[in-house]
Design brief:
It comes from Corynebacterium yudongzhengii. With 314 residues, this protein is α/β, with parallel strands linked by helices. Helix content is 31%, strand content 25%. It contains nine helices and 15 strands. Strands 3, 4, 5, 6, 7, 14 and 15 form a seven-stranded mixed beta sheet that branches. A six-stranded parallel beta sheet has the order 10-9-8-11-12-13, with helices on both faces.
Length: 314
Amino acid sequence: MSTLQLSGETTEIIETRDEHAGEGDTLIDVTHSSLNYKDALAMRGEKTVALIDPLVPGIDAVGTTEDDRLVTVNGAGLGERRHGGYTPQLRIDAEHLVDVPERFNAFQAAAIGTAGFTAALCVLEIRDDLQTDAGPVLVTGASGGVGSVAVHLLKSLGYEVHALTGRREEQGDFLRGLGADEIVDRADFTEPGKPMQKGTYAGVVDTVGSTILANAIARLQFGGIATACGMAQGTDLNTSVLPFILRNVRLFGANSVDATHETRVRAWGLLDEALDTDVLASLTETISLADAPQAGRDLLAGRRHGRAVVDVRG
């Protein structure tokens, strides 16, 4: 059996060792993982993600338990502070597991992965706060893993969805196929703007942070909500209290790593309710363990969209 291991800045396929499974009260025979932004950073040797050395990447793991349950683990420290899902067996405490809904198979659960789970966390907050006729919801970084699933979930639930991307010509058809009603040019959000701008959006799912998030908050309508789950543009947020006070807006942070079991189950319930598996298939490809490092480099360079499932079996 083979495992993908990162050591320093070198990522290579090695023979699986017992230590790669880690510690926990439940053993999973892993069949699939996925490629996420954090995985790409880890394989680049980014020390803010790869907290141990050596490290098996993979912040997702999907497989079967000893009692033949199909389960998924998203986050929970995998691929960061402990070995992750790019290995054929994993031990982890049961509190981090979620039973995969019956209508999803292992491949589909991995295609959803942390990206889909994070999108669901954000969309849950949108749905809890906003009626579907409240106004358009903006999704930033819409062609990425989190953004693409968020676009589709929001549209499935009945919202008007505006998808922000820096590649309108290249990704427009892809995003409209997911359900986007309007494609928004990222260039309109990249320069610092006034803290209060025209109230255009009822909600925001933001995957990039920094100036784009600040401008999105400034364009929220009264009572709007912004959900933040990424930092691809940066970790800074230069805004003011004005939108929060004068427009009664709210900023919600989605933490997919440390979410409670109850929250995990609720998010997967939303995915079970609203995710079209044909749409999921249309935005997903399969890669091998050996392909993962190059796919990670392409992801960081902005040359990928949608989701990539890593087949751990070969």
